[in-house]
């Protein structure tokens, strides 16, 4: 397999016309372990695509290759048609463990991406303040990360990624270190954010429910070596009350179908 | 610690030992140990003598120069070893050897290299203090969460920015711990250096007092030195506590 992904599921779709991220023939090995083999993927502009798979399928590796944090052994990544091998301003990363600077306030953490770009202090703090409010942390600007809960810390990580105004947001299991209640709330916020912000999201998760709940498109990866095994586009109406989605028939069917597909990899 | 409702400073246990010292001294059992009150009196008159004052200036100057040098060299060296494997492989063994070696044995060699003056004392302080600073800095850099480095890279940090905005700060608690331990070793270095050279600063004073059996003054000088070492260690510890507070949530 490799080059062509199997497309089945509730709604088989043709390749997207406008893809912002194009991944071609990505290979990656760690020592003797083949992490990724022949990954070809297109990520449609303005959509939220999830990379879903069991642990060891290389989904985080793929995300970090797209981010330019890990070098692939073969293949190319193109953003807006331009090949990239290093991090760039058109991409922003949200980390699983938040990766906040514990010695810096929420304000400085959120503004850090802009600080590194040399934006002057007044301007970057104005921008940061806006996104701190956007993720629901208004009033916490002068707090330090250790004074916040896990969920709030990840909101800081998200605000930092938003404030650099990148086209593509790369999220590496952002909710895995956040407790269940906060995760739910966060997922709802992400759906809202995706509608408000005209951005492309690439989201790594191992939770089927989470992937189906928030994604326009789900890329299923199979493990050892990581390959694209299936691409699913759940047809779920997310316009109304986010609570309703959890009871949506399409939602439940898609979750079940993905589970049936993934079951074989679980020992 | 509180006693009868009053807050007693941490050093209170020292008071108990001072009383024991006073009693043993009064019993006149060992001639080496005059009563503590005599030592205090000697200390008060000692600090008024020009010879003590000039010795203190000499000693402090050598100490400060040696410490500054070992921090300026030690911290970058530790960061280098924490970040670059080849540097770590090349230097690790030597740093470990020097940090546990009996350095007093090397001081006479320094004397040959740097002569009987202040340079030798500065070199001795440097030699005593630097290794623990290097080792602690290295440990601190090693413990930085990899995702913090990835974060800086993904948001486009240049190499200087990565070091000045992330690595230095993330390793700061360990760097300060290293400097604190280095300061205490540096005090040891300055005294041993001066004792062996024996013609400058506190070394000369110690030499005079012990040779002439002026034990009260000898002990007074020792106590002043201890107090100085404890004081600077305490100061650094304060700074550390502040940094640890901010770094407390390190992942």
Q: How many beta-strand segments of chain A?
A: 10
Q: Can you give the helix content of chain B as a percent range?
A: over 70%
Helix content of chain A: 25-40%
What is the percentage of strand-forming residues of chain B? under 5%
Structure description:
The complex is a heterodimer of chains A (267) and B (251). Chain A contains eight helices and ten strands. Chain A is of the alpha/beta class and 267 residues long. Chain A folds into two domains: 1-90 and 168-267, 3-Layer(aba) Sandwich (Rossmann fold), CATH 3.40.50.300; 101-165, no CATH class. In chain A, helix 6 (208-214) crosses helix 8 (249-262). Chain A is globular, with a radius of gyration of 18 Å. By secondary structure, chain B is an all-alpha fold. Chain B has two domains: 1-33, no CATH class; 41-247, MetI-like fold. Helices cover 80% and strands 2% of the residues of chain B. Chain B has helices at residues 12-27, 36-46, 50-83, 85-100, 107-114, 118-142, 146-154, 159-170, 172-197, 201-211, 215-247; strands at residues 2-3, 6-7. Chains A and B meet through strand 6 and helix 2 of A and helix 7, helix 8 and helix 11 of B. Chain A: This is NitT/TauT family transport system ATP-binding protein. Chain A: It comes from Mesorhizobium muleiense. Chain A: Keywords: ATP-binding, Nucleotide-binding, Transport. Chain A: One of its GO terms (molecular function) is ATP hydrolysis activity.
Question: What's the short story on this structure?
Answer:
Chain A has helices at residues 59-67, 106-116, 121-134, 150-163, 180-196, 208-214, 242-245, 249-262; strands at residues 19-30, 33-44, 48-52, 74-79, 82-83, 91-94, 168-172, 200-205, 217-222, 227-232. Chain A is an alpha/beta fold. The longest helix of chain A is centred in the C-terminal third of the chain and has 17 residues, at 180-196.
